[in-house]
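Quick start: what a row looks like.
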Amino acid sequence: MGQSVNSLQLTFENKVVVVTGAAHGIGRSISNEFAIRGANVAATDILETPLTESKNEVESNIKATGSIGKISAYICDVCNSEDVNSLVEEVMNDFGRIDILVNVAGGVVGQVHKPIELVSDEEWEKVIDVNLKSAFYMVRSVTPYMKKNKYGRIVNISSGAGRSSSLTGIQAYTSAKAGQIGFTRQMARELGKYGITVNNVAPGFVLSNPSTQKQWDAMTEEQQLKLVDSISVKRLGVPEDIAHPVLFFASDFASYVSGQVISADGGLQLF
């Protein structure tokens, strides 16, 4: 039987959480939200300077809230399987366990729309690698440890593009995020018997990093206004709007939820 409702709390004390793509916006916010709720957060990114800035910001928030949480920074190229395996081994050595994995690393890597016939192999592969291959590498690496503990929470960050189409028309991005949602469902089916849930948060348009800012700036004023007007709540998202559904999926409140997608997009796409 599951836990009683009265015994459930949205706290992550003594939990070890790995967050990829933690240097900017959404990943930084997710790291912060876990840490101020008591988690030991292993924040990782390939960008050392903004990752350090993120760590400092989260540490300041931990202190301000009086939390017992902790954040540690790890440099890792999540598109490189050897780097990923080394990262997971290092986190295991430091903390002895990994309870929660949040795959945030992704994005359009600075690309904007161009006709399909002009998209190069390198451009396509770069987007696929950072959005889909990285999630595969991370899940493959942490799964043996979660299986051993018979417990795990995996949350992948996809996009509304993966459920429908890209607002900015980037073909590889839509394809990678759709693939990640399929990967989420397959892993939920495979890992459930080991006490591991796997879920997905699909953000709407959030100005959270240089790439999304570049996409926004590439739109005309008319396109920007049209986008905001198409959102039911009439505003763009902020990183915390994505972090909070992640907390739900990672918590005991969602222990009977797996293979699911939450669209955190302000009611842009209504399914």
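That is the whole record. The mean pLDDT is 93. The longest strand covers residues 196-203.
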